[in-house]
């Protein structure tokens, strides 16, 4: 009956687009949340929610924090580990690329491997940071490690 009234009165059978639910955060609040995240990228969503509530006095759940950050293109990702490079290391790597940059057929013999690991129970020890996909190599998103030989 309702669909018939909509069709006869307004010539439509779908719902009208509504405004939806009012957002808890404004764009200004979202920018403030981004500042909190940039200051400590390794904080969990619960820690960010606690910092948000102490800073603003407004309660926000960890899932809402996650959704607001996802809307801005940020999510929790495993941080990149790397060995700290000196200027000499960088110079030698650049020299190697210049020497081997002309390889064409030889690159077909090179095998690049990728290892994945997962944990069924508990914490796997990896440290997560909140970042976008393009911020993978930013110094604040990278954990430097020293390998003992």
Automatic annotation (TrEMBL):
GO terms for biological process: DNA integration; DNA transposition. Residues 30-100 form the Transposase Tc1-like domain. Coiled coil: none annotated. GO terms for molecular function: DNA binding. It comes from the Eukaryota. This is Transposable element Tc1 transposase. It comes from Trichonephila clavipes.
């Amino acid at each position: 009956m309702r669909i018939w009234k909509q069709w006869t009165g307004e010539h439509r059978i779908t719902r009208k687009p509504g405004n939806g639910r009012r957002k808890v955060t404004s764009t200004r609040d979202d920018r403030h949340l981004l500042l909190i995240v940039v200051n400590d990228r390794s904080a969990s969503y619960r820690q960010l929610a606690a910092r948000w509530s102490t800073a603003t006095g407004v309660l926000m759940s960890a899932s809402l924090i996650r959704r607001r950050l996802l809307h801005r293109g940020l999510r929790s990702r495993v941080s990149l580990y790397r060995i700290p490079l000196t200027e000499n290391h960088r110079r030698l790597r650049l020299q190697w690329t210049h020497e081997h940059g002309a390889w064409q057929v030889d690159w077909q013999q090179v095998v690049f491997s990728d290892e994945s690991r997962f944990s069924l129970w508990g914490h796997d020890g990896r440290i997560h940071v909140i970042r976008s996909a393009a911020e993978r190599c930013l110094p604040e998103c990278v954990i430097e490690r020293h390998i003992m030989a």
